[in-house]
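yo

u said u wanted the structure for the complex thing, so here. seqs first:
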Amino acid sequence: MNRPFGKLSYAVLCATGAILAATGIGTFALGKAPMTHWVLMAHVAVAPLFALGLAAVALTWADLCRGGAPSPLNIPARLLLWVILLCGLVVILSGVVPMTPLFGAKGQHFLYLTHRYAAIVLTAAVLLHLPALARRN
Amino acid sequence: MPGFGAVPLRFLLWRSRRLFFLAALAFQLGGGAHRSGAEDLYTESRTPFLHNIPLHDTQGRVITPPDFLSEDGKPQEPKASPYSPAQTCGKCHDYGAISQGWHFNEDMGAVKPGRPGEPWILTDPATHTQIPLSYRGWPGTFKPSNIGLTDYEFLTNFARHFPGGGVGEPDKINAGDREMGRMLITGKMEIDCLACHQSTGRYNHEARFNALKAEEFLWAPAIAAGLGAFSSSRTAASIADSWRPGRPPPSTLPAIRYNRACFDTENNVLFQVSRRPPAANCYYCHTSQTELGDARWHSDLDVHLKAGLLCVDCHRNGLDHAIVRGYEGEAQDRSISDTMIALRTALLRRDNAALSDDDARNLARRQLQSEAGTIETLTCRGCHTSGRLGSPQMVHKGLPPIHLEKLSCAACHSGPFPASQPQIVHTSLAHKLGLPAHTRGETAAPVILEPVFLRGAAGKIAPFKVVWPSYWARLKGTNLTPMLPVEAAKTVTLPQPSSDDAARDPYDAKPLTDRQIQQALESIPADSARGVPVFIAAGKIYRMDKGILNSWEDSAAKPYAWALGHDVRPAAQALGARGCTDCHSADSPMYFATVAAKGPVEANDTLRKQMWEMRGDDKTVASFFAFTFHFRPLLKCVVFAAALVVMGVLLHYGLRGIGAISARLGGSAKEQP
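structre next:
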């Protein structure tokens, strides 16, 4: 892994993910969903950075986390990375696909719920991944 | 009670007392106030009953025009009493129940007002007056009695588009009342069933208008239906003018000179009526025209009509005529009156004599409550969700669901396509559409604008029609007392239009300059007890302070707004069909169209607001959000590219993992002997 780039990618993922979680999950947790106004704009503005961070993490961390590879990461950290990548993919796709004329009202609503709950799982995975990283092999 | 033509008054009095006794007996036996003698002679078939029926006058007598020749061989005119819709149609259809319907119950206090609708606008171009009126108490309107307008004056102003019943048909006529007492001569204004239900297109609204203008309320239904003509050279208004309160009315009143051809050999008249009136009948009162003058041919009309539906397919009603208005939440606004329950109870007991009255009443109430719930399926959303009447299901591809929570269906689908300014719209009720007149131009009062995007029920953005009130008034504290046009004409010195102007366009009047408003206000006599003279127009109050004309925006002058539902545009012409920037752009009409207050004042210092301001939205948010849409394509590209990378990585390592598992399983198999 290109360590500085990998760490930067991970840092971008975490920082943007925190903002997205605060705006998205925070609004939901406060019972004020869906997001509107400045909160929505902040969410949408940060989303591409998160997507780029996720792509960079995928490129720089995946090889470390593949099965059987020599890696300083422990098993939970490796497994959680795949969960993060998978949920991240679902989250960014379910966020951007509604901006295309592919789905009607029902499909849009399904994507909205998918986005919400995949984001909750993703946040949980990142929160578990951080301490798992600290416990290296 | 006056007679008609040669019918002696004494006979009528005797007859009416007898009828009253019989009616009272029937009332007791019928068990409800709504029973008006209807015999419930329903065919219960979907084949319309041929209404070849006898006419009845207000006393319930069959109308029989005299033969062409009298017994002594002299020609006779076919004169007889005017026909009464209440008695003629009411023989089989419960007139009492019908008169509780939405079109007729405006003055019944127990009826919930529901969503604010189109008001009656008392308009007088000469005094620059336009006052929104409603008996229903919609916020922003005046009740006629609150500004000193009697029910009779209301009728003389608006009978042209008033369907009858309600205030046109008071329970009692006070003979001592100078105005209502006139009804002893003019008759009550019964519900004219044919105005809506005549299906031949031969109902003559102009003839009805002329009859009502002459206060021939009793005669108007026969005249409008083409059954005959008013038989006197004196109008009912002129006869009423010569009557004085307290005196008995004339013993005979003009008859209708009937058209003999309308009567068959058995003295029946053929009414071609329909339970499902054609849209053209509804349009007499419910036309909204934005393409003025000859531009009308550009209008596509409502997409539902083009698809073959009728207005009454959605705006339907039962015998109670509690017509479905069709907005979301209407079920909560509907009153289930005692009359409706009594009517349903009677029907239930007719079909099941074993039901006790109490059980039938309870069942009737439950049924009506259940039916009120189902009217939600007749809203836009209800119909296009349930698929009623073959309506296509809502699809809304590419539209984030939040739009369905923040916008009414009409916001994107109804009214003229929004532009940088709302358009001037003429309506039947406000501009006397349906009646011949001089060209109604853009300045014809009252000036109404649409679409103006405001927040409606549940805070949803919806398109509205708006009109700014305009009137002379006295202000005492915070209380405004409007002057009626008659008083304003006497009190206020106003510039007189040249006779040429008035002849060319009586609907129009030149806007007032500040100087003219000042002169007019100064001409109103001081009266500290009644308050300071003021002029309300175009969203402002004008008032003299120490010889200087001041004006300011005031909530008392704010526009009255009512939601528009039609004409509905097809999905391909909805807002948003061309993309998000139909609404989310720096010049989108929904946020940034300019609404200039309209009224009879010069446009120098007109109040102008953008749509976001009319709604109380935040301009910065709206502008910035619209600005972000410049970056939407880039956002999509970045996110899709990132998704492709992540997908590629997952696929790559996923396939490698599957390969490794396969190799391991294959290797294990080789190792086995």
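Chain A has a mean pLDDT of 89. The interface with chain B takes residues 34, 36-38, 40-41, 44-45, 47-48, 51-52, 54-55, 58-59, 62, 66-68, 82, 85-86, 88-89, 92-93, 95-96, 98-105, 108-109, 112 of chain A (CB under 8 Å).
cya
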